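Predict structure. Input: Synaptotagmin-7, 403 residues.
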Amino acid sequence: MYRDPEAASPGAPTRDVLLVSAIITVSLSVTVVLCGLCHWCQRKLGKRYKNSLETVGTPDSGRGRSEKKAIKLPAGGKPVSTAPVPGQTPHDESDRRTEPHSSVSDLVNSLTSEMLMLSPGSEEDEAHEGCSRENLGRIQFSVGYNFQESTLTVKIMKAQELPAKDFSGTSDPFVKIYLLPDKKHKLETKVKRKNLNPHWNETFLFEGFPYEKVVQRVLYLQVLDYDRFSRNDPIGEVSIPLNKVDLTQMQTFWKDLKPCSDGSGSRGELLLSLCYNPSANSIIVNIIKARNLKAMDIGGTSDPYVKVWLMYKDKRVEKKKTVTMKRNLNPIFNESFAFDIPTEKLRETTIIITVMDKDRLSRNDVIGKIYLSWKSGPGEVKHWKDMIARPRQPVAQWHQLKA
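Output follows.
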C-alpha cells in the first residue's frame, strides 16, 4: 500500500515541526555564542578600562613612574625623560584625553617642586652654607725632624687674607705653636702690626724630643689678633697629626684656617637694648639680662657683671659697668647707661660689651664679648642699623657672646 511520505504517522513529528525545531536550535546556539562573545568582550574591555583608570588615578602607575624618572640624574648628569616621542601615537588615547590625568600630573609636579625646594642641595641651603663658611685666610709653615739631634723643627712662614679683627679694618696677628696634647709649653711668633698678609719667617726648635714621642703629637697652630687692652681675639687654627707627615725632610704646607674650637655658642647670650636720640646726640645702652652663661668657677657657676666701653677710632673714650650678680648663670641686670655721641661720629663709633666673671683672689675672667658698630658681625650690624632707623625707641636684641 502506498504511503504518502509527507503524511504524518501517529506519534511522529511532522516536517514542519522538525523544521521549526531546527530553526529554534540554531537560533539558540547563535544566541549562546553571541552572549559568550559579548561577555568575553565585556571582560576584555572592562579590564582595559580598569587599567586606564589605574594609570590615571594612582601615583604608582607607569605614567607616575615616568614622571619620577624625569628628575633622576644618571651618571651622565642629564635628566632622563620618558615622555612620548613627538609624532608617535600613545598606546591609549583615552589616557591622554581623560581629565583626571592632568590634575594628577599637576599634583605630582607640585609635590616634586616642593621636594626639590626642601632638598639639602637647594639654593637656599647653599646660600646658608656659604654664609657659615667664613674665609679666615690661610697659613704657610714647614716641619721636619733631625734624627741626630732629636729635634723637631717648625718654621712659620706667612699668612694670607686674614680677616680684620680691629675697628680700623685690620689685625695685629701672631701665631701660637703647640704639640698637643701638651698645652703648657707653647711658642709664639712676633706680632705683625696692622697686617692681613703677614710674613714671619721664624724658626722654632723642640729639642731633645725622641722621634717615638714626636709621632704621637699633633702640631697645633693658632693665629690670634693681639689686643693691648683686652683678651687677644682668635682668628683661626690648623692642626696636623705628625704621624701623617714624612719628617725625614722639611715639608712645607699651605693650610686654610678653621674656626677655633672654643666656639662662641657655649659662652651664653646677652639681651640688651639700644636707643639713639639724634637731638640729644646720645645712645642709651640697657643691659637687660643674660642666659646660659659659661661657668668659670670651680663650683660650676660664675659671678657675672658687664662692662660697656665706648670706642671712637679704636680709642677708649668712656667705660660703664653693672653690679656683680653672685653665683648666677642667668642674671637679670636691667641697668642703663647713656653715652654722648654726635651724629657725625656714629660711623667711627663702636660699643664693646664684655661679660666678666668676678674673682676675689685672682684676675677676673672674660666670659664673652659683643662688638656693636657699623662693621661688626651680621647680627650686631643689624642691631646697630635698627637703632638708627628707629630713633628715640629702645631696640632690644639677643646676642651670642664671643671669645
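The mean pLDDT is 74.
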